[in-house]
């Protein structure tokens, strides 16, 4: 969820002057930001766009001199950006060239459970897998990452992740900065540890949330800068860390125009000086620049203390505007968002996240935690019952937040992942449209990847009509 806060800059200044543990001001910004390449694709006779992804090891320079062993898709670290149009058929051929099983999950995508890439469908070492579906949702910044049983944290940490952009080509979307890598920039933010120059998986902060790093990579680039040639630049922020929460701000406190959340554009730009993203969440922001200036994207203290390893404030990305920049303006409206109505809810459910359990249960591949009837709307009340931060992610659907501790959010937006602050309760609403399959479960879980691996996950099955029974099968 987005924390709306004008005090971010003051807090950063306080940390700098009080000797708090942070890295702001220490990064050199001397490397050009890497832009993940757009994935190559072919188009089948029936119009299906076909992609190939090979997960495998490689060697990367992550800023510590010698190269270090990493994992990536079609390369040494991260993966290419997949891009498809709304209503387009897509097919992805996935090859596992790792030394352990993996899956690829299409985070935020509305699609049949069979091709969702969850833990029921592992791709064995050396194996291949094919996922095909029709894109049927608004323009959005989605992503893909592994989702095997027990191994997700380490696989994502080593570098397996990438973006999946959906385009709709509506007029207002065209009015936003939309030239990939030029004024429309993927910003994949991750924290890492290094030991003797090598990427380290040590859990040295004992934070209860798994691995936390003290260095930031953006698209795999340490200390990155970006040359900008337009007065507006769109940053597609993705928190692809394993545990860390970021409060993104600009170094001089200037407002960012929030234009999109996980599942698509907002109805209108929303000016804010701070955007909070927990693991798996995305935000699209547009930043305005004057000719010749430099300004940094940073993170400000979250107040989450030891759950962030005591390190909160990081330099992220320096924007360098050219002397001559093309003037652009932001459209006043972006899209319209259907208002889901809680009085239409066919079912209400309550889920409490506590320890590593959801409603006192850990993941069981044979237990179905919720049976949902296709094309119905449900209201879920999701609470964090204790002091450790968690996050709530649900597969297949995009939801709207109805309330946070009883208070309504300031604007409507599509979300698939929600930060669960300690001891807060959230009400969300979603429509489970289109795909019923009694034999295959979708997941909902904590997106802190250590927690997910330790079983903080449940399963739901969508059935055709009320009374139908699920009958899930593996493989
Ligand atoms: Cu981003 Cu179930 O995952
Ligand atoms: Cu958790």
From TrEMBL:
This entry's Gene Ontology molecular function terms read: copper ion binding; oxidoreductase activity
The domain of life for this entry's organism is: Bacteria
What the entry lists under Gene3D superfamilies is as follows: Cupredoxins - blue copper proteins
Where in this chain does the record put each Plastocyanin-like domain? 65-170, 232-288, 343-464
Provide this UniProt record's keywords sorted from A to Z.
Metal-binding, Oxidoreductase
User: What InterPro entries would the database entry show?
Assistant: Cu-oxidase-like_N, Cu-oxidase_2nd, Cu-oxidase_C, Cu-oxidase_fam, Cu_oxidase_Cu_BS, Cupredoxin
Q: Which family does it belong to?
A: Belongs to the multicopper oxidase family.
Give the protein name, as stated in the record.
Answer: Multicopper oxidase
- Recorded source organism is Dactylosporangium siamense
